[in-house]
């Protein structure tokens, strides 16, 4: 059985979280580590922007400061996500790894299968989102808002048609990074307060429709599993779905210093975060 690494890196700042995902890509490309599945959290609560997202058009930076939230630009595309009471995952694997489809959409389906089984391990009958109507497909091409959970994309996790986990993917020099948020609870007012809208009326209309499109775990379960139990459920899910064995792995001090250096030099810099 093929062995992948599993990392529980716990809570960290936004720049460090993105830097670690990038360094894992580098180390896997260099052959220093096998494919990796990582789980992490955010401290402080942080807004992550899609790679091409325009800050001044979409984000209320004063509100971000007012809520004492972090901010970072992801290396992946998509729309902004508020990471607060959630479990975040990332998968790092080579594009030519056996069993990984060449197409991005199909790769989403394969790499997200472990999430599907993980939710079922926790008693939630989640399924894949498959945009079918012309309106749903149009929303993907021209999103109505800058909020990530406003609509599900291909093969994201939904329960009763409402998005429970959002994912994004990038491919760099032969390596796939897919990462995403699994929402335990969300503060809807805080979330929408951090985005810019053309008018308060539009903001309220978008916010009113948000709950019909997204759902946190707290609305679906009598008791939300702890992050520890969630990680265990998803580890079993990924092992079963991908036919792999996950071996827990920790960074040594040298590797942690490499991540910290990249976090400071790139992901904490205004040059990176305000590039668009």
UniProtKB/TrEMBL annotation:
GO molecular function, one term: ligase activity
Pfam families: LplA-B_cat
The keyword Ligase appears for this protein: yes
Keywords for the protein's UniProt record, in alphabetical order: Ligase
Superkingdom: Bacteria
Entries under SUPFAM superfamilies matching the protein: Class II aaRS and biotin synthetases (SSF55681)
PROSITE patterns: BPL_LPL_CATALYTIC
PANTHER family: OCTANOYL-[GCVH]:PROTEIN N-OCTANOYLTRANSFERASE, OCTANOYLTRANSFERASE LIPM-RELATED
Protein name (database record): Biotin/lipoate A/B protein ligase family protein
Organism in which the protein naturally occurs: Bacillus daqingensis
